[in-house]
Amino acid sequence: MYYSGCCSISAYSSAMGIILQEIILMLVISTGSLSAEGRLFMDVKVGRSAVLPCNWRTILDNLSSDQKPHIEWRTFSETVFERRGEEHYEGEGYEDRVDVPEDKLKKGNCSLVLKEVKAEDAGVYESYLLVNRVKRALSSKRVFIQSVELSVDDSSGVIHFPSPIITFTILTIILLFMQCFIDPL
């Protein structure tokens, strides 16, 4: 049987090589910065609340008595929430929906409470403790605590995956196979 498609065996092998490279890249990037316990994965439905776990005492036993814990929760592109004592910052799009309660933070619990979850909240969240380098110094170092990957399930049954890399890889595979199996006119 003669195949008249656009792709030869060498083109097919080349396409499979590209796919393999994309998968390896996706795996390398998705492992990101992992703690000793690794990244946590959570699923939540749209409209519900999620508590992204975090405990800074696992990283640092105690702060000096005059130092208040300074916690920061980030995605790859933005700061979601920051708290130091009574002062706090809520990132754009997260206003009135995020918190790390001050009383719990003092005891080591830096879990992020995310209310009224939206589909666009899907993503990787990382928590950091900001610690002064030297007593009374203006500069501080950021100490990684935890990484949490949040997947959001909307009521239509569609699960919103956080990683654009996964989406890009799937679309690349589909396009490559379409190119090989659709016979041009």
From TrEMBL:
It is a single-pass type I membrane protein. The chain crosses the membrane at residues 161-182. It comes from the Eukaryota. It is found in: Cell membrane. One of its GO terms (cellular component) is external side of plasma membrane. InterPro entries: Ig-like_dom_sf, Ig-like_fold, T-cell_Activation_Regulation. Keywords: Cell membrane, Disulfide bond, Glycoprotein, Immunoglobulin domain, Membrane, Receptor, Signal, Transmembrane, Transmembrane helix. Coiled coil: none annotated. The keyword RNA-binding does not apply. GO terms for biological process: cell surface receptor signaling pathway; cellular response to lipopolysaccharide; immune response; negative regulation of T cell proliferation; positive regulation of T cell proliferation; T cell costimulation. PANTHER family: GALECTIN 17-RELATED, T-LYMPHOCYTE ACTIVATION ANTIGEN. This is Immunoglobulin V-set domain-containing protein. It comes from Astyanax mexicanus (Blind cave fish).
